[in-house]
Amino acid sequence: MVMKKIFTGLMVFVGLMSFAGCDKIEPEEYTVYDGAMIEWETGSANLPAVQRVYVEKYTGPRCSNCPTADVTLDAIHNDNVVIVSINHPTGQGTPYPNQPDMRTVGGTVWDNYFGINAIPAAYVNRDRSTQYLGDMANIGSAINEALATVPQIAIEVEAIEVNGSVYVNTHLDYKQDIPDVLTLTVALVEDSVVYRQLLPDNSIDDNYAHNHMLRKVVTSYWGRDIEASGKKETKLVGSLNLMLPSDVELEHCHIVAFVSNKASRKVLNVASCEIQ
Amino acid sequence: MVLTAAAVTAQAQGIMGGHVTGNVQVDGQMSRADSVIGAQDVPEKLLMNARADILYTNGDFSAGLRFEMYENPLLGFDPQYKGEGLANYFVSYNGEKLSITAGNFYEQFGSGMILRTYEDRYLGLDNSLRGVNVTLRPFDGVTIKALAGKQRCYWYYGDGLVRGVDGEVSLNSVLPFLADSKFHATIGGGFVSKYEDDENIPSYINPEERLNLPLNVGAGSVRADLGYGNWSLQAEYARKGQDPSAMNGYIYRPGQGLLLNLTYSQRGFSAGIQAKRIDNMGFKSVRSQSGEMLYINYLPAITKNHTYAFLSMYPYATQVNGEQGLQADVMYKFKKGTFLGGEYGTDVHVNSSVVYGLDTTVTGFAGTDGYDVNSGVGQTLYGDVSVELAKKLSKTVKLTTTYAYQVFNPVVENEPGSLHHNNIVVADLSWKVSKKHSLRFEAEWMGSDSHYDADDPEHSDRRAGDWLMGLVEWNIGTHWFVSASDQWAYNDGVGNYYNLSVGYTHGATRLQVGYGKQREGLLCIGGVCRLVPASNGLTFSLTTSF
Questions:
Q1: Which one of A14, A27, A105 has the shortest CB-CB distance to B165?
Q2: For residues A23 and B216, is the Cβ–Cβ distance under 8 A?
Q3: Domains in chain A, number
Q4: Does ipTM come in above 0.90?
Q5: Average pLDDT score, chain B
C-alpha cells in the first residue's frame, strides 16, 4: 500500500514536471523594456462603471494621409476615447533632418508586434481582427460599439509631479470575475508637439501640432501583471513613479493607463489624466 | 583528525549494531617563486587541503558526513574554497524497492547529459545536490528516480532549484518472451527542470531593455542500451529548452545532444566507435555562473583520457557550447606462440579521435537565438591517433611502447593561436627484479610545432616546444617506493621540471612526500579541466581509510 502511494506520488510529480518544467519565450519577447515596477495595495474606492476605449494609432511625419486620420480621430476624441499615437519606426515614420525623433523603443515593439506596414493605421482596444487605415472612416462605429459594452473592470488614474518625478496611482475595480491574467500598462503621452509634417497635398507644415504622441512606455512594454485574484469587487491601487524626460513639456503631458488581457493583449479598459 | 579518532573509537565499539567506515586525506604544498617556470610566491608558505569522510551503516540505514578544510587551498584550487566545515551530510534508507536520501547526494540520469552530480577532489569539483532523492524499484527491471535540491558551489548553495525524474526499464525483465533472449535491451528517459528567480540582465542591443529570462529551464533525454551477442549499442538523445546564460552569451537557442557508442568484443579482440554531437548543452543551476561549478549535467568526453605525461600535456576540454566528434578504439591480443605474439603474447591498442566545432552562422548575440547551425563541420578542435604495443619480454620484464600524433587547437582553452601538431613517443619498461623489488623506467619524447616566446612569458604557453622526459621508480618491498623524474623542454620551450618523491604504504595508509617543479597546465578528467599553475617546492599527501 505504501509503495502504491509513493508510486502514485511520483507519477503526479512527473506530470507536474512535464507541465511546469520549461518556460518558452517567443523571439519577439526575448528582450523587454525594463520598465517601472508597480507596487500593489488593496484599494477601497468604488469606481464608477465607465467603459472607455483605447485607440492605438500609428503615424509618421512623412505620411501624407496621417493628418486626415488625425482630423477623424480628433473629432471623435473625448474623455472616454483615449488615443495614443505611435511614430512608425521606418519609411514614412522616419523623422525629417533636424526635426524631433518621436520614435520610441516601446512603440517600435508594439509596431512590430502588430506588423504595421502601412500608415496611418489604428486598432480599437488592440483588437487585431480589424485594422483601420487611411482616413479611418469606419473607426467611429467600432469605437461606439466598444463604448457601449459593460465594463469588466473600471480604471482611473491620477498623477502628480514633484521635482521632476511623476507619481502615478492607478485604481482598479473588478466589476466581474475575470479568470484571465491581466496586465496594467502605463504610458506617457504628449499633446501639441510641434514638428514638420507632410500634408495630404504633399506640402510640408513645419508647425504641425501632433497630439497624443507616445513618449515613453513607463511599465514594461506589455505591462505588469496585475496581482489580484480576479474576483468581482476586487479593488487595487497600483503605484509607480517615473522621471520626466527632459524633452517633454509637462503641461502638455498625459498619463495613459490601460488594462489588457495578458494572453490576447486586448485592452479591457483605459484611463487618462493630466499630470498635476 | 579529531573526527578520525572519534570514528575509529565508534567503529571499535559499534553504534546500535551498525558500523563506521571512513577515509581521511591531507594534501599539503609549499612553493616558492620561480620566474623561469612562472611559479608565484606563496605568502602563507604552507597550503593544505584536507578532508575526512565518515560513513555509518546499519542495515538498510546509512548516514554520512564529510569535513573539508582548505587553509589555504592548494595552488589551482579556487580561493573560494578557503575555509573549513561540514561540506556534505546525508541520511539514507536503501531498501529493496525503495531508496531515499535526504541531505547531500550524487545522482546521474543516463550518460549524464541532462543530470550528473559528482565529486572529484582532484578537480576541486563538487556539484552535489542538497535535497531529497528517491529511487523506486516497483517491479523487477523498473527503476524510477525523482529528486529535488540545490547545488553545492564551494561553501554555499546556488539559488537555482533543480528537480528531476528519470525512469529506466529492462525489457528483458518485463517482457517474458525476452527473458532468455540473447538480445538485451534497456530503455529509459529523464526530465530535469531548473527554477531560478528573475534577474536584470541588460540587452546588449538596446540598453533600455533587459532580457526576458525563462525562469524554468527544462532538459529531457531518451536513451537505449541494446546488446546482442558480442555487440552492444548505447544511444542517448537530449534536448534542452531555452537557457540564456553566461556560458552561451545569453542566447535563447535550445540545446541538444546526441551520443552513440557501438562496441564489439570477444576474447582477445574488441572494437568500438563513439559519436557525439552537442549544441548549446551547457546546463547550470545558476545562469550567471561561469567556470566549472554548478553544472547540472555532464557531457562525456569523446577523446581518450591519456595518462602518460606528454600524451596528456594538451588535454581536450569538452566544449559545452558545441562540438561534434568521433572516436574509434581497437584492441587486439596476438596470442602466445604466434609470430607477433611471441612467448607471452602481444597487446595492441589503437585509438583515434577527432573533434570539430559546429559549422555555424552567427545571427545575433545576447537576446537572440545566437546562431544557425549548418550541415558541415566547423573548425578542428582536437584530433589524435595513438598506437600502443604492450609486450612481456620475459617473466620479469614488460615493455609498453606508444606512438601518438595530436592536433590541438588552443581555442579549446579560450586562447588564441594556430593548431599545434605534436608527435609523441613513450617507452615504459617494468622489471620485477625480485619478489620484493621492482623497477619501472619511463622515457618520453614530444616534438611540437608550438613555440615559446621568451619576450612575452606572460602570454606564452609554457608547454610549447620539444620535450624529453625520463622517470625511474623503485618499489622497495611492500612499503616503500622512490621515484625521480625530469621533464625538459630542450627546444623552442622553457623549463626543466625535476621531481623526486618518496612514499610509504602501510595497510590502508599511504604517505608521500615530493620535491620538485610542477609545470603550468590543465588537469582534465573526463573532459572537465582545472588549471594547475606552476609551482616549485615541497608537496606531501597522507591518505588512510578505516
A1: A14
A2: yes
A3: 1
A4: no
A5: 92
